Amino acid sequence: MNIFYKDGEIATRNLTPGIKVYDEKLLRDGEEEPIEEYRIWNPRRSKLAAALLNGLEGLNLKNDSKVLYLGASTGTTVSHISDICDEGLIYAVEFSPVSMKKLIRLSQKRNNIAPILADATKPKYYLNKVEKVDLVYCDVAQEKQSELFMDNMNLFLKEEGYGLITIKARSIDVIQKPKKIFKDEAKKIKENGYSILEKIKLEPYEKDHIAFLVEKSF
């Protein structure tokens, strides 16, 4: 993968050298052409970066991987996946028209991002726009997040593919303890035919968040 770790930071090789996405720091390596450029990946602005820095090991994204990203927002994390899967394709689903405008501008500079203005709770509405993917990534902070995550995996995930969901406890229940919420969400996922391979808490970058890496049970 085009992911690099150094001195407690994480970076991806920049698909579009010289161009920033969200004011991230750019680092150049080498004195002779071709000079490689890297984008520092801010874990306080990307839950995936937080999960990787906290020990996520099984992401297994390749240069040509295809990804369905649910809750793409303006494209901060999407852009780093774009760096990693430089020969692949990211289907970026976002519900907000305001965020979608920025996402479209990003896709004009990165031809491996396909923005889709849609509601991730209704995946059949974009069934004819998305092929089978290697990873379904879900960052949609709402009460039924696990359900929409599994609905999308059931439709779009390859047999050998993975799912990654980042769960915000307070979006599900503001009263219940996060530990209980995470246990209940994990139970839902297992009862619907998926195995949880890794559980990664996202502190200190995100409070009361956890990431689950899952695959289909056979």
Topology:
Layout: E1 3-6, E2 9-13, E3 26-29, E4 36-40, H1 47-53, E5 66-70, H2 76-84, E6 89-94, H3 97-109, E7 113-117, E8 133-138, H4 145-156, E9 157-168, H5 169-172, H6 178-191, E10 194-201, E11 209-216
Parallel strand pairs: 5-6, 5-8, 6-7, 8-9
Antiparallel strand pairs: 1-2, 2-4, 3-4, 9-11, 10-11
Write structural notes for this entry.
- With 218 residues, this protein is of the alpha/beta class.
- The chain has a single domain, classed as Vaccinia Virus protein VP39 (Rossmann fold, 3-Layer(aba) Sandwich), CATH 3.40.50.
- Helices cover 27% and strands 31% of the residues.
- The chain is built from six helices and eleven strands.
- It has helices spanning 47-53, 76-84, 97-109, 145-156, 169-172, 178-191; strands at residues 3-6, 9-13, 26-29, 36-40, 66-70, 89-94, 113-117, 133-138, 157-168, 194-201, 209-216.
- It is globular.
Tell me the name of the CATH class.
Alpha Beta
The domain count comes to 1
CATH architecture level-2 label: 3-Layer(aba) Sandwich
CATH topology: Rossmann fold
Q: What are the low-pLDDT stretches, counting only 5+ consecutive residues below 50? A: none
Q: Beta-strand percentage?
A: 25-35%
Mean pLDDT: 95
Number of strand elements:
11
Question: How many H/I helices?
Answer: 6
Shape: globular
Level of helix content?
A: 25-40%
Task: Output the helix-strand order.
Answer: EEEEHEHEHEEHEHHEE
C-alpha Rg (nearest Å): 17 Å
**Structural class, from helix and strand content?**
alpha/beta
- Characterize the main sheet: 7 strands, mixed
Defining traits:
4-stranded antiparallel β-sheet, alpha/beta, 27% helix, globular, 11 strands, Rossmann fold, 218 residues, 7-stranded mixed β-sheet
